[in-house]
Specification:
This is Ribonucleotide reductase of class III (Anaerobic), activating protein. The chain is an alpha/beta fold. The protein is built from five helices and six strands, in the order αββαβαβαβαβ.
């Protein structure tokens, strides 16, 4: 197995208002998951619910070892892990982290704004079964972009892909 300690520690960031890794059911309906919020996002959406995660230059607060320990202690209690953000596709260690979580028996989810559709490749090629959730903002992605991404992902074997429209003012 790949050592993900140094590869993934750079992308994990603690959300200040939760002071740790959060367990929830809303990130993956029907499943109890832990959500890891990744630092950095190229967009500056006015409706962003994690503005403290936008700056990719902020140092990490939660090392991968803490996440792996959290997952180890919750075997049999949690169904999966969701990588959210910020923008998780900015993280070079994302595929290794997903693989490590999967090796512990967890389902893997990804919440992305779709800023880096070609970076899905590294995750898809990792062999990890996962759910991909894309928030579509019509000001950033037009119908052609969405159709192209949907077809590209389907061609790569993505079976669980949830599309949701941005909810302004929420």
């Amino acid at each position: 197995m790949t050592d993900v300690g140094s590869a993934t520690a750079a992308f994990l960031r603690r959300r200040p208002r939760h002071q740790g890794i959060r367990c929830e059911s809303g990130a993956a309906p029907g499943r109890l998951v832990t959500t890891v919020f990744c630092q950095g996002c190229p967009w500056r959406c006015g409706y962003c619910h994690n503005p403290e995660l936008l700056d990719a230059r902020v140092p990490p607060a939660v090392p991968w070892e803490a996440v792996a320990s959290h997952l180890g202690r919750r075997r049999g209690l949690l169904d999966g892990i969701v990588f959210s953000g910020g923008e998780p596709l900015l993280q070079p260690g994302l595929a290794d982290a997903a693989r490590a979580a999967r090796s512990l028996g967890y389902a893997v989810g990804l919440h992305t704004g779709g800023a880096y559709p070609r970076r899905f490749g590294a995750l898809l090629d990792s062999g990890v079964a996962h759910q991909i959730r894309t928030t579509v903002d019509p000001a950033l992605l037009d119908e052609r972009d969405v159709t192209a991404l949907r077809e590209w992902l389907a061609g790569r074997g993505v079976r669980e892909h949830v599309w949701q429209s941005v909810r302004c003012g929420s």
